[in-house]
Every structure is written in C-alpha cells, then in structure tokens.
Design brief:
single chain, mainly alpha, membrane, Sulf_transp_TsuA/YedE
C-alpha cells in the first residue's frame, strides 16, 4: 500500500512539474528549457542529502543499498536507453505518469518498446555472456562515495561526502539560470 501511495505521489509530482509532457523532456535535453533539469538536479541533491541524514540518524539500513556491477554491457544499455529517452521524450517513470494524461497512446507505445527491449535482452543474454560483453571494463560494484566497505569507490568520503554532494547539487540547481526559449 505504501508503494502505491508513494508511486501516486511521485506521478503527481511529475505531472505538476511538466515531466509527463514529452515536449518538455525534449526541450530539456536540447537545453532549450532547463527548468526540468533544475528540478531533477535539485531532486538528486535533496535525495542524497536525506539519505545521508537518515544514515547519520540511524534510520537508514545499508542493506537497502544494492549496487550493480559496472561493465561494458551496462554502458551499452545506458546508451540505448538514453537514445530511446531522447527520441520518445519519456523514461519509465514519466511514461507511467503520462499514461494518466492525454499522452496515453505514446506512453503505452514506450512501455511496449521497453518490454520488447527487455525481452530481446533476456533472449540474447547467453549470447552476450558468451562473447564476453559483461566481462569487458568490469570494474565491479563501484560507487561515487565510500558508502559500504565491500564496494570500491571513486572518492574516499562516506555519507559525509554524500551529504556535501547533496547540498552542492541543490546549490547548483538554485543558481542555474532559468532558461526558456
């Protein structure tokens, strides 16, 4: 029940800031209107700050962090995802939220495309594993900050670094100029 409530809250927030309209996403990606970018950057900063505060207060369990390995397959998958995101102007979250608006057919098309891509990947997984795509550039379960002892990180700072990063991202979002064309 909590997940449904939070999902509805998230979808409503996406709708309110205009993220359910693919034109707004495309304008953001083209740097023609960076209002959404400011909101996203602020959200990343705010979320990072809240997670670090929750950790310091002892109410965040490290077991909730699941880090996946970074390898060539993830990089290629991210590029394919980014291409689809740019063409459609929707990502999974905005797509589901858009299904409750007048973009329902486009949203369903994007959901179908995502499911088709997942099916294609699942059916071809053994092939990609055999040719070694998942072993190339495999740097493991790396994080930006040292949040867990068992995971390598780029920076030696732990949740304190995450907290500073969060505040910095919120500052960047605040000082980015409003640009609408």
């Amino acid at each position: 029940m909590i997940a449904i409530f939070l999902g509805m809250l998230f979808g409503g927030a996406l709708y309110l800031v205009g993220a359910t309209r693919s034109e707004n996403i495309k304008a953001m990606l083209g740097l023609k209107n960076i209002v959404l970018m400011k909101i996203i950057v602020f959200g990343i900063g705010f979320g990072s700050f809240l997670v670090s505060i929750a950790y310091f207060l002892g109410i965040f369990e490290l077991s909730h962090l699941e880090i996946k390995p970074l390898h060539l397959g993830v990089v290629i998958g991210g590029m394919i995802f980014g291409l689809g995101f740019g063409i459609a102007g929707m990502c999974p979250g905005t797509c589901i939220a858009s299904s409750g608006t007048n973009n329902v057919f486009k949203a369903l098309f994007v959901v179908f495309g995502g499911l088709l891509g997942a099916l294609a990947f699942s059916l071809s997984y053994e092939f990609w594993e055999r040719v070694g795509v998942f072993g190339v550039w495999n740097i493991g379960e790396m994080t930006l900050f040292a949040l867990r002892e068992e995971n390598p990180s780029l920076l030696p700072f732990g949740f304190g670094g995450l907290s500073v990063f969060g505040v910095a991202m919120m500052g960047v979002a605040y000082f980015l100029p409003f640009r609408e064309e």
